[in-house]
Amino acid sequence: MKSKNLSLIIIIPFSILVLATIQCARVSPTSKVDETSQLVGCDMTDADLRGVSLRNANFNGAILRSTNFREANLSGAIFYSAILSGSDLSSANLNGSDMRCADLSDCNLSGTDLTEADFSGANIKGANFKNAIMKNTNLSTIVWNNVICPDGTNSNENGFSCEKNLKPKNK
Fold first, then answer.
1. Contact, 140 vs 160, CB < 8 A?
2. Most buried among 21, 54, 76, 141, using CB within 10 Å?
3. What is the 3-state secondary structure (H, E, C) of 51-112?
4. Residue (of 152, 145, 99, 146) closest to 129 by Cα position
5. Element (H, E) at 18
6. What residues does 78 pair with on adjacent strands?
7. Cβ distance 171 to 150 under 8 Å?
8. For the chain, what is the radius of gyration of the CA atoms?
């Protein structure tokens, strides 16, 4: 299927958010991007998705480099094998999301709710989890390389782990 370039506009009450041009074989120019969107394999590099609600959206294998998800509601979203390197997910809601095998290198996840999210097999090299909420978060097979832990310490100074530093300071 041939990819198409298109621009998406998400209408949020009292505002309009214009996103970067994306390439996606499964989204047509008239597609509505909302909580049920299937954005499998889409290239949304540099998109601005600040504050949007994309609960349960499917970003399986999507390319989302340097995408701004700041304060977005992404609870239950699927990011399996997605590339999110350099993205801003700060203060987002990722409660129950599927981040398995995702590339989250150099991502900002500070202040993010990661309750019951699954990060098994994800690449988190250089990610910032300062003040992130990690209750019942699956962190199996994670390699902690130069990661800022929820308590603000660096994994490299904690024996290359954040396992004992998962509670934010002053919380």
1. no
2. 54
3. CCECCCCECCCCECCCCECCCCECCCCECCCCECCCCECCCCECCCCECCCCECCCCECCCC
4. 152
5. strand 15-18
6. 58, 98
7. no
8. 16
Residue with tokens 């981040």: 99
CA distance 155 to 137: 17
CA–CA separation, 143 vs 87, rounded Å?
A: 19
pLDDT, one tens digit per residue, over 100-150 is: 999 999 999 999 999 999 999 999 999 999 999 999 999 999 999 999 999
Residue range 33-84, pLDDT digits in tens: 555 566 888 888 999 999 999 999 999 999 999 999 999 999 999 999 999 9
Residue 30 is predicted with a pLDDT of 40
Residue 90 and residue 94: Cα distance in Å, rounded? 10
Report CA 22 to chain centroid distance, whole Å: 17
Does residue 158 sit in helix, strand or coil? helix
Q: Is this prediction's pTM over 0.85?
A: no
